[in-house]
Each structure stands twice: as structure tokens, then as C-alpha cells.
């Protein structure tokens, strides 16, 4: 979460993929799905990476809301991501029941995290 908050503060991106303390992928202009795919690929055949998606420090929720949905979970499954964490109260989960089903089916821990960044 700390790394994701820092890259978002720097306005680089909103998602990071980490495994065993090593940052594998940082979201840039390509978007969340491609970041997840790249990070999962770099995690190796056994997968097991953790992905964290956050809102920018001064995010303007009037125009853009960080969200995840079934496509995000499908991408995580294909990339063998083990955990997808997001900020509670600062993210939107689309089709929540479908996401929960996909997470269970693919053994992905879907985790809403409290505000670690103080904003």
C-alpha cells in the first residue's frame, strides 16, 4: 500500500504489483489491466503476486473513480495474481457479486484496505 500511495502521489499510476517485497510492475499510461498482466508474468509460473490499486492523493472523484470489476478479476486470474487490494471508501467495485464469485473461483484474495496514506 505504501508503494502504491507513493507512485500515485507522484502521479505515475495507481496500481503496483509486488511479490516477496519486490516491485514487479508499476502502472503507467497503459492502465491497470496491462500492469496486472505484466506483473503476473514477472512473478513467474507459480504466480502469487500482490496487486494494490489506490486513488491519487488529491484525486478528483467528480470526474474519475478508481474502480475494479469482473474484467480486473479475470486479468488477475490469467496473471496468477494471488491478492488484489484496493482502498476502502476510495474505490468502486463493479458487479460485486460477480467479482466475489470470480475471486473465490480463482482463489484470489480481494481485500479492501483502510486509508494508510492519511488522505
β-sheet strand percentage: 25-35%
Helix content: 25-40%
Summed over residues and divided by their number, the pLDDT gives a mean of 89
Radius of gyration: 13 Å
Which overall shape is indicated by the principal axes computed on the Cα atoms? Answer: globular
Task: Give a count of the beta strands, DSSP E runs of length 2 or more.
Answer: 7
Number of helices: 4
In angstroms, what separates the terminal alpha carbons?
A: 13 Å
Biggest sheet details: 5 strands, mixed
Keywords:
alpha/beta; single chain; 5-stranded mixed sheet
What's this, in brief?
The protein is α/β, with parallel strands linked by helices and 119 residues long. It is built from four helices and seven strands, in the order αββαββαββαβ. β1 and β2 form a beta hairpin.
Topology diagram in text:
Layout: H1 2-9, E1 15-19, E2 22-26, H2 32-42, E3 49-53, E4 67-68, H3 70-79, E5 81-87, E6 92-93, H4 96-105, E7 109-113
Parallel strand pairs: 3-5, 4-6, 5-7
Antiparallel strand pairs: 1-2, 1-3
Helix pairs in contact: 2-3, 3-4
